[in-house]
């Protein structure tokens, strides 16, 4: 069966649809939330709930940024195969946004006030990565997911022990991110130059540090 080839206008419509699904009150992605299998912790202290909410705010901001990256890369993807991979991974990342948002509500937390900036900046970066070519775009995904994996490992260590629902969400997110990175490498993603990897780590550190508080 031949690959579906999307014209630029088709890609724009798909991107608008994805944006609308990220708005508050939009229908949640059809994906099982791993937190639903566990009871809400009743013995978390106020400080523990505040810490867990701050960590989940960072993860929500990161997943929202991931949506921006995938959208930008999708707009500039050259092959139907790359576009299909980006859309598939982006759909899973959209579920991550919903899971993090649900945990924020349950913990009494709020979203980052800078969410539009995280998304907009990531959209621009993703578009640039896509314009560099599919092999570089896939390499960008692989490196992004490698850094996200390390980030999630750190959050799993910092998360209050009693918050098993947030832990279940982060563990499933980590498994998905690892698979996305491996898929991108197998599809021909190129290793990014060391200075680019360093800039990515710096940008991630700025976002995570700021979103924790703002």
From TrEMBL:
S-adenosyl-L-methionine: present as a keyword of the record?
Answer: no
Please tell me which top-level EC class this enzyme sits in. oxidoreductase
Q: Oxidoreductase among the record's keywords?
A: yes
Pathway per its UniProt entry is: Cofactor biosynthesis; ubiquinone biosynthesis
Q: Which reaction does it catalyse?
A: a 5-methoxy-2-methyl-3-(all-trans-polyprenyl)benzene-1,4-diol + AH2 + O2 = a 3-demethylubiquinol + A + H2O
- Record keywords: Cell membrane, Iron, Membrane, Metal-binding, Monooxygenase, Oxidoreductase, Ubiquinone biosynthesis
Reported EC number(s) for this entry are: 1.14.99.60
- Provide the membrane topology annotation: Peripheral membrane protein
One Pfam entry name: COQ7
Q: Which Gene3D superfamilies match?
A: 1.20.1260.10
The record ties this protein, via SUPFAM superfamilies, to: Ferritin-like
Q: What GO terms are given for molecular function?
A: 3-demethoxyubiquinol 3-hydroxylase activity; metal ion binding
Q: How is the cofactor bound?
A: Binds 2 iron ions per subunit.
Q: Which sites bind Fe cation 2?
A: 93, 145, 177, 180
GO process annotations (BP): ubiquinone biosynthetic process
**PANTHER family hit by this protein:** 5-DEMETHOXYUBIQUINONE HYDROXYLASE, MITOCHONDRIAL, COENZYME Q10 BIOSYNTHESIS PROTEIN 7
Q: Which family does it belong to?
A: Belongs to the COQ7 family.
* Name of this chain's protein: 3-demethoxyubiquinol 3-hydroxylase
The record lists the organism as: Immundisolibacter cernigliae
Q: Which gene encodes it?
A: coq7
């Amino acid at each position: 069966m031949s690959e579906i080839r999307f014209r630029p206008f088709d890609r724009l419509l798909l991107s608008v649809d994805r944006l609308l699904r990220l708005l508050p009150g939009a229908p949640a992605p059809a994906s099982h939330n791993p937190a639903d299998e566990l009871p809400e912790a009743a013995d978390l202290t106020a400080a523990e709930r505040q810490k867990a909410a701050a960590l989940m705010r960072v993860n929500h901001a990161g997943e929202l940024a991931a949506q921006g990256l995938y959208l930008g890369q999708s707009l500039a993807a050259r092959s139907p195969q790359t576009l299909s991979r980006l859309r598939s991974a982006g759909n899973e990342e959209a579920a991550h946004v919903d899971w993090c948002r649900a945990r924020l509500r349950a913990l009494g937390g709020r979203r980052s006030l800078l969410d539009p900036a995280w998304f907009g900046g990531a959209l621009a970066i993703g578009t640039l990565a896509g314009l560099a070519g599919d092999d570089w775009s896939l390499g960008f995904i692989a490196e992004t997911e490698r850094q996200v994996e390390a980030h999630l490992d750190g959050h799993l260590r910092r998360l209050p022990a009693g918050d098993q629902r947030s832990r279940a969400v982060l563990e499933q997110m980590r498994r998905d991110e690892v698979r996305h990175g491996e898929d991108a490498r197998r599809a021909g993603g190129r290793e990014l130059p060391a200075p680019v990897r360093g800039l990515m780590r710096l940008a991630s550190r700025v976002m995570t540090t700021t979103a924790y508080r703002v």
